[in-house]
């Protein structure tokens, strides 16, 4: 009976940490089912081999996580973080208490449950803190999970978990094993060192990603500048040829050759109107964007779309001087939306993208609307992680965009579809 109650306490402790750390939310019914499943598997494995029983507590939640996100490695790593947190706190607290009160503390019922209560409280608050950190860097972690630094962190977590599992559940059954003489202090020291190394690798990876992002922004600005230089040269050429154009019409006028003038105008003069209105000149409409990173991003996407034969309509009437959203998050989200718009418009018949930045009294509205071909899936599917109409590994964009915007209370993303356009509208409150 007492063993069953201790198992129940262990399961509750794990579920508390799991709930605080996991970015995927479960309802009460799912937690009850998860807890009962853990206990059933634990008892079954315990009857077979007691050393295998903890696997139920460690890995059963992975199945429930996988049902939420369809990512087995992500689910596995998240649960390992939960388990390592509990192991470190349990080992460290038990070690400290045994040093202060002696080993006999755990032999008494009051001492044992008092220690468990303290461990539960520490697990609750520390897991809350880790959960907030994970949500803060959620987009970065899962957008860059193939980074060599994050891969190394995952390997360290898996190896550390394996080490602790073997030492805790298997070495104790070995006789005269030097590893059986483990102490809570050595585990804690190892844990602190691992946290320092993993944190260092993480921030190195984040710094490297910021550097890559800044390089992309510089490339966009360089492309924008080059395009403006080409525009200036085109204007100079046109100004130089203007007199010759007028002179070419004079002979027809003198001879009163109206038919010849009409033919000459339609063949040689009128096409210059199209030249004057070619897409390069539309970049001048971006002058009202006073945020260089956003101007560089949009100009780069506009130039790319023009090269693909897409007609761009830009509407930015008033200066845009402030958008209260992290510039990296805004650039990533806007980049995802523009890339999707270009890809969709390219497959349509009309090939048109409308870009508007509207300055309100207390907010800024960013609108991207594009033509499309065929049927657009239900909006509820478009924002699901992994969903794509373009095949595998193509469905992270809109899901990541939605997650990024979800971190901000002052920002909303509205999506709508008409007969001819797919419209994405980001509203940023600048209050």
Describe the structure.
- The relative contact order is 0.06.
- This protein starts with a helix and ends with a strand.
- It folds into two domains: 2-182, no CATH class; 285-431, Histidine kinase-like ATPase, C-terminal domain (Heat Shock Protein 90, 2-Layer Sandwich), CATH 3.30.565.
- Residues 172-182 and 385-396 have low confidence and may be disordered.
- The chain has 431 residues and is an alpha+beta fold.
- The chain is built from 13 helices and five strands.
- It is elongated and about 120 Å long.
Q: What are the main properties of this structure?
A:
431 residues; alpha+beta; Heat Shock Protein 90; 2 domains; 13 helices
Could you estimate the helical fraction of the residues in percent?
55-70%
Q: Characterize the overall form.
A: elongated
| Radius of gyration (Å) | 31 Å
Low-confidence blocks of residues: 172-182, 385-396
Total beta strand runs: 5
N→C terminal distance: 58 Å
Largest sheet: 5 strands, mixed
What is the residue-averaged pLDDT? 77
Individual helix count: 13
Order of neighbouring strands in the sheet with most strands: 1-2-3-5-4
Give helix and strand order, one letter per element, not per position: HHHHHHHHHHEHEEHHEE
Q: Which secondary-structure class do the elements indicate?
A: alpha+beta
% residues in beta strands: 5-15%
Domain count: 2
Summary?
With 431 residues, this protein is of the alpha+beta class. It has two domains: 2-182, no CATH class; 285-431, Heat Shock Protein 90 (2-Layer Sandwich), CATH 3.30.565.
């Amino acid at each position: 009976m007492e063993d069953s109650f201790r198992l129940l306490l262990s399961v509750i402790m794990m579920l508390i940490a799991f709930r605080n750390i996991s970015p995927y939310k479960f309802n009460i019914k799912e937690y009850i089912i998860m807890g009962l499943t853990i206990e059933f598997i634990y008892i079954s494995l315990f009857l077979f081999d007691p050393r295998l029983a903890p696997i139920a507590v460690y890995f059963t939640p992975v199945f429930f996580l996988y049902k939420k996100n369809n990512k087995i490695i992500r689910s596995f790593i998240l649960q390992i973080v939960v388990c390592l947190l509990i192991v470190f706190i349990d080992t460290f607290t038990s070690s400290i208490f045994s040093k202060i009160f002696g080993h006999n503390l755990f032999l008494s019922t009051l001492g044992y449950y008092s220690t468990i209560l303290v461990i539960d409280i520490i697990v609750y608050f520390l897991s809350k803190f880790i959960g907030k950190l994970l949500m803060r860097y959620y987009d970065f972690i899962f957008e860059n999970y193939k980074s060599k630094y994050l891969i190394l962190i995952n390997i360290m977590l898996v190896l550390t978990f394996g080490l602790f599992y073997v030492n805790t559940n298997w070495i104790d059954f070995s006789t005269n094993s030097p590893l059986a003489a483990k102490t809570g202090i050595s585990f804690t020291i190892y844990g602190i060192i691992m946290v320092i190394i993993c944190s260092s690798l993480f921030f190195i990876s984040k710094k490297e990603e910021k550097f890559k992002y800044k390089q992309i922004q510089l490339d966009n600005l360089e492309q924008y500048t080059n395009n403006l230089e080409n525009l200036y040269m085109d204007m100079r050429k046109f100004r130089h040829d203007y007199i010759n154009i007028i002179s070419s019409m004079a002979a027809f006028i003198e001879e009163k050759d109206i038919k010849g003038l009409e033919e000459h105008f339609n063949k040689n003069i009128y096409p210059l109107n199209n030249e004057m209105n070619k897409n390069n000149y539309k970049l001048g409409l971006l002058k009202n964007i006073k945020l260089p990173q956003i101007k560089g991003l949009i100009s780069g996407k506009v130039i790319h779309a023009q090269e693909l034969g897409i007609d761009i309509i830009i509407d930015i009437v008033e200066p845009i001087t402030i958008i209260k959203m992290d510039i990296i998050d805004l650039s990533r989200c806007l980049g995802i939306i523009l890339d999707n718009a270009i890809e969709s418009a390219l497959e349509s018949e009309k090939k048109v993208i409308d870009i508007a930045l509207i300055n309100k009294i207390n907010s800024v509205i960013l609108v991207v609307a594009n033509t499309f071909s065929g049927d657009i899936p239900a909006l509820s599917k478009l924002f699901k992680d992994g969903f794509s109409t373009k095949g595998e590994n193509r469905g992270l964009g809109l899901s990541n965009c939605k997650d990024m915007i979800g971190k901000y209370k002052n920002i909303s993303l509205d999506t709508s579809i008409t007969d001819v356009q797919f419209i994405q509208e980001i509203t940023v409150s600048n209050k």
